[in-house]
């Protein structure tokens, strides 16, 4: 038995990653497509064997309500459209898997959570890191204190973004610049690794003057987060430099991290520790799994077993609250304290 999905938005992520990932899923299948392009709908449907009667334009989206083959909707649209399509999808009686970042603002996240709750449908943010074995291994090393107490974390996710016309550079469609798009991985992964929530953030923001890519959204954000255990995380994201994706967790007797981190594949753990006077360096290899397939099957499993997803809407909301505090700190030039957050059941 497999959960039937409608994929909404036939852009890069859907075509290059998600459709192939579904072929590796064990509990999930694509049964319907929603797109603004009739041409794309026909081509993709033919390639993946999707029935012509299960192809929808955006105007026909609400008609998914009448299609019992569709149990879940996977929203893969520009960030600024996530809230509307989640809310309408829940009102159509479907469970919602929504791409990251969850929305443009925390207020939109609240509305999405409310709509899914009201419709008694599940909502999951399509984060990958939490379903990926290398990150899980490092989380386990941190939480079991393999190298003693963690003190400091450093994380960077930066890349060159080339096209100023792309929706990622339009505030209404993207919500922000590098921070919600790629910086989010640093933030979200560190929260996952530590299993605790930051109590205070401090941020700097900068955009190169005159660069057409950064008329509406920021080029870079550099920020720090303080955690209740005493850990301080130092993070950076940037749309204007050559790609770097990595993190390192520094503990009393060793450090561990991924370089590269956050990528779809090819993640490489790096571990260093001392035994007496001998320094060890290890680069263990873990069998790769398709991260998207793991994440999608997790959601299907939650629907089948009536369980709460590991990354529910509240998880996306929390990330947005923290990003808003980082922007506020950068604007006001001072640290911003975050309201006390109760640890969710999923992280116990
Ligand atoms: P994309 O630009 O390649 O695709 C977006 C799709 O939305 C296109 O098919 C486009 O036609 C459609 N669309 C509908 N209305 C639009 C409008 N008004 N303006 C622009 N496009 C419109 O983008 P993508 O890279 O596929 O990203 C889609 C979503 O997936 C984003 O939320 C992004 O953050 C997320 N994403 C997640 C990951 C991940 O690793 N989880 C990776 C890449 C993208």
TrEMBL record:
Transmembrane regions: none
Swiss-Prot/TrEMBL keywords: Oxidoreductase
Domain Gfo/Idh/MocA-like oxidoreductase N-terminal per the UniProt entry, residue ranges: 4-127
Membership in a protein family: Belongs to the Gfo/Idh/MocA family.
Main enzyme class: oxidoreductase
Residues of the full protein shown: 109 to 456 of 463
Residue ranges constituting the GFO/IDH/MocA-like oxidoreductase domain according to the UniProt record: 136-255
EC number(s) recorded for this UniProt protein: 1.1.99.28
Gene Ontology MF annotations: glucose-fructose oxidoreductase activity; nucleotide binding
Organism: Fibrisoma limi BUZ 3
Lineage, top ranks: Bacteria, Pseudomonadati, Bacteroidota, Cytophagia, Cytophagales
Keyword Oxidoreductase: yes
Name this polypeptide is given: Oxidoreductase domain protein
Gene name of the record: yjhC
